[in-house]
Amino acid sequence: MLTDYVKKDLIFLNLIVSDRIELFKELSALFLEKGYVNEGFYDFIVEREENYPTGLDLETHTVAIPHGDSAFVKQPFISIVTLKEPIKMKKMENADEEIKVDLFFFLGLNDGTQHLQILKQVIGVIQHEEFVKKIKGVKTSEEMMDVINGVTVGN
After folding, report:
1. In degrees to the nearest 10, what's the CA dihedral of 99, 95, 131, 111?
2. Mean pLDDT, rounded, for 66-88
């Protein structure tokens, strides 16, 4: 099911940003430009992340799963983003704590029922250290799609 939502044109590798606000601003502008979201997506995602943080500390790695509201999503998508250097994100289970994150799954879903299923799927796959290592090791969006599609990169 993830393969239906991960969009090759929304895979961004080794971005350089100073903080989550800059990341959200850059990506929201790209999502808007490409026709995936409406105006207001940026404001919503910033506010949502402030009130309901999405940073996950999974012992061997960290990931964040920011997601927008269906009201701002024109076409459903998952954008996978890696950063050159990690940035601070608030922890999902404790907003008073911050963790450094360099892997993001941005969810833009316009169906509430699918939203929960997709979120569970993303959380399921990111718990596998080998999967995350593969994602962090890709050099192109094509390689990322291969990993998402279950193809082992480099074979």
Report:
1. -150
2. 95
